[in-house]
Every structure is written in structure tokens, then in C-alpha cells.
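Suppose you are handed a protein chain with no further information: no name, no annotation, nothing but its sequence. What can you learn? This example shows the usual starting point.
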Amino acid sequence: MKKAYIFDMDGVIYDSEPIHARAKKQVLAEYGIDISAERLATFVGRSSRDFYGTMVEENPACGASWQELAKKKHDLYRKLLTEDRSIQAIPGVRELLERIKAAGYL
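A reasonable first move is to predict its three-dimensional structure. Written in C-alpha cells, the prediction is:
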């Protein structure tokens, strides 16, 4: 019987939330929407539709759809991931991956 480990990189292998927050704030700022870190934190783990839908509902003058904002954020997030060399694995992840590999899973 084959066994495998499956990991979702985002938030499991590395802490991606600061990059998500940075991208969200930057995209919203392009549309004249300012959001505090505290308010942004209330949306952690919620869908893009929920987050950007709320932002558009509260700021109709921004002139964008939630889908447009979500796509811009996604594109910016991917760009930031490739440029930000400060991203580190969550403590213990490297050791775990080494143990999994030594056990023959990789």
C-alpha cells in the first residue's frame, strides 16, 4: 500500500498571511479604500467573495467588482511571493520534511 503526505503550502509550510494582508491593503488602496490591520484580521480565513464583496458593498464609489479586486490581489500576491526573499518556513517544517523523506515518502 502506498502512503503519501499532502501539504497545503499556504499557511502550513510557511506563514503566508502577512503577504496576503500586504497584497489586500495595496489593491484596496489603489481603489481609495483604506482598511486597518485590525479590520483586515477579521477576514482571515474567509473567502475572497466575502471579503471583497464586503469591501465593494461598503465602498461602492470604488467602481470595481469583487471579482476584479480578487483577481488583482491574486496576481499581486503571486508577484510578491516571487520577489520577497524574507519568506521562511514555519519552525519545524524542514525537520519534518527531512523525517518524511528519510522514511521513504519523498
